[in-house]
UniProtKB/TrEMBL annotation:
Pfam family, one: YjeF_N
Cross-referenced InterPro entries: YjeF_N_dom (IPR004443), YjeF_N_dom_sf (IPR036652), YJEFN_prot_NAXE-like (IPR032976)
Source organism, top-level taxon: Eukaryota
Record's signal peptide: none
Entry's Gene Ontology molecular function annotations: NAD(P)HX epimerase activity
SUPFAM superfamilies on file: YjeF N-terminal domain-like (SSF64153)
GO cellular component: mitochondrion
Name of the molecule in the record: YJEN3 protein
Domain YjeF N-terminal as annotated: residue spans: 1-133
């Protein structure tokens, strides 16, 4: 697809009456992209919630986190292991856990536990990159 024809648009499959999205962010670049995704979802009138357990010390990533906080996007302190709670609370999950920059060792905690939970989700999962998706 030529770059000029790419567009940002809300997911039409999510009902407007309950547009809740859980954005699960990893510690590296893909997690930062997840934070940016959450901001855009908020702009398009969705209700994102972020789970970002291993925050990066990188100043740019901290700025993205601050922007999300200033937009009143809530952050979860833990990811429920009871999958039904996630299925009931959200219409979709954005997987921003691991990206192409991920190294083999990054499959450790907390990422391994997150991915194990996401494997059992019944709601749609949108992966921002292939490795964790």
């Amino acid at each position: 697809v030529p770059v000029s024809s790419r567009q940002a648009f809300p997911l039409p499959s999510l009902p407007r009456r309950q547009p809740t999205v859980l954005v699960v962010c990893g510690p590296a670049q893909n997690g930062a992209i997840g934070l940016v995704c959450a901001r855009h979802l908020r702009i398009f009138d969705y209700e994102p919630t972020i789970f970002y357990p291993k925050r990066s010390p990188d100043p740019l990533y901290r700025d993205f986190t601050t922007q999300c906080e200033k937009m009143d996007i809530p952050f979860l302190s833990y990811l429920p292991t009871e999958v039904q709670l996630i299925n009931d609370a959200y219409n979709a999950v954005v997987d921003a856990v691991l990206g192409a920059e991920a190294e083999a060792g990054e499959g450790r905690e907390p990422c391994a536990a997150i991915l194990a939970t996401l494997k059992h989700i019944r709601i749609p999962i949108v992966s921002l990159d292939v490795p964790s998706g």
